[in-house]
Structures are given as structure tokens and as C-alpha cells.
């Protein structure tokens, strides 16, 4: 197998995750002002993204901060996970699956406590790549350089042998700063062409 490695983000890359309007619907339903849900739960979302709270603790905080009963908490969390999981980017997933014999493959994703179980069940990402590195499991989020360093260490690869694909510009910039090649995902054709260039040994001036 080639020593080259491809590492991909999940949300916005392997999953298509447009906003569903769920927050606005809940604010309207609860008679809250625009932005109130984020204001009340922002600390909870941050804690969940680095694994500082458990799923039951998240649900307790949602109930307390939004004054919801158990039925509404379940509905609120179901809406959250539906938006979080989105739909699979089947074209890109199929392409990446075909790379398994050609290169090392990994995932680095900013995430939320409970994501691994749901994404593995829905999309079998554990069968797509060798390592899935979630922010809620390592305690740091992109663009912290440590997230990229942990991913390389777990895959046993050098940063310079890696191409990182993400839909957030600052994450791409930090990946480049730690020595990786990186591509800002905008659509499948561009990402697939960039991965092919990486595996064929062609290094573009930017991307």
C-alpha cells in the first residue's frame, strides 16, 4: 500500500448537512426570541463537542435550560440528530471506498457526544476508513493543531504524506500549517480530482 494518506471531515463532506431550521421552529414553539436556544445551550454544545459531558447530562441540561418535559427533550434531541447526521454523500463515499487498497484512510471530525454510535450505525464509517478521530473523544476540536497531530499519530503517518479534506477554511489552513496538504471541499468533483492528484504524486500550488 502507498504511504500516502487521505483524511476527511464528516459534516459537510462525507455527510450533507444543510440547516433544517430546527432551532427556529423550537424557538417559535417555546415562545423564545431568535438566538435564545443557542444562548441557553451554547455552553452545553461546547462541552459536548469535547466530551466534557455525557449524553444523559446533555439531556438534563436541555430539559433544565429550555424547561422541557421528557417527551419534548426526546423530540428536541431527535431533531438535533436528524440535522447532525444529514444524508450520506454517496458519490464521495463510494469513491473513498475504492481507495482502500491504494492509501491510508482516516476521518477527523468535530463532533458531539453520541456521534460515533449514530454515524457508525447509519453510515458504517468504521468500515470506510482505518481510524475515526472525534473531537468529543480526544478533548480538542479543529482547528486546534493537536487534533491533526493526534490523527496522524493514530494512523501512524507523517503529516507531509497526508491530504486533509474539510469544508471549513480555517481547518484547511491549520492542516497546512502542521505540514499536511489540504483541500477546501466545495463539491465532489474538485475533491475527487484533488485526491487523485495527491495519490498520483502531483502537488498543486494551492488547494
UniProtKB/TrEMBL annotation:
Pfam family, one: Hydrolase
Cross-referenced InterPro entries: HAD-like_sf, HAD-SF_hydro_IA, HAD_sf, PGP-like_dom2
Gene3D superfamilies in the cross-refs: HAD superfamily/HAD-like, Putative phosphatase, domain 2
Organism domain of life: Bacteria
PANTHER family, alphabetized: ALPHA-D-GLUCOSE 1-PHOSPHATE PHOSPHATASE, FLAVIN MONONUCLEOTIDE HYDROLASE 1, CHLOROPLATIC
NCBIfam families hit by this protein: HAD-SF-IA-v3 (TIGR01509)
Protein name: Hydrolase
Amino acid at each position: 500500500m502507498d504511504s500516502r494518506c487521505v483524511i476527511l471531515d464528516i459534516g459537510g463532506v462525507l455527510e450533507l448537512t444543510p440547516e433544517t431550521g430546527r432551532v427556529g421552529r423550537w424557538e417559535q414553539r417555546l415562545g423564545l426570541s431568535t438566538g435564545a436556544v443557542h444562548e441557553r445551550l451554547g455552553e452545553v454544545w461546547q462541552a459536548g463537542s469535547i466530551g466534557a459531558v455525557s449524553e444523559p447530562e446533555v439531556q438534563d441540561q436541555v430539559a433544565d435550560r429550555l424547561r422541557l418535559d421528557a417527551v419534548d427533550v426526546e423530540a428536541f434531541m431527535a431533531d438535533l440528530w436528524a440535522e447532525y447526521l444529514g444524508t450520506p454523500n454517496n458519490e464521495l463515499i463510494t469513491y473513498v471506498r475504492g481507495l482502500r487498497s491504494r492509501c491510508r484512510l482516516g476521518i477527523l471530525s468535530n463532533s458531539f457526544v453520541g456521534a460515533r454510535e449514530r454515524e457508525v450505525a447509519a453510515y458504517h464509517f468504521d468500515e470506510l476508513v482505518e481510524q475515526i478521530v472525534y473531537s468529543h473523544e480526544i478533548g480538542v476540536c479543529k482547528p486546534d493543531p493537536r487534533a491533526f497531530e493526534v490523527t496522524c499519530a493514530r494512523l501512524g503517518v507523517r503529516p507531509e504524506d497526508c491530504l486533509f479534506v474539510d469544508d471549513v477554511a480555517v481547518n484547511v489552513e491549520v492542516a497546512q500549517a502542521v505540514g499536511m496538504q489540504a483541500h477546501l471541499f466545495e463539491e465532489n468533483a474538485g475533491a475527487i480530482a484533488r485526491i487523485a492528484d495527491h495519490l498520483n504524486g502531483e502537488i498543486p500550488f494551492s488547494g
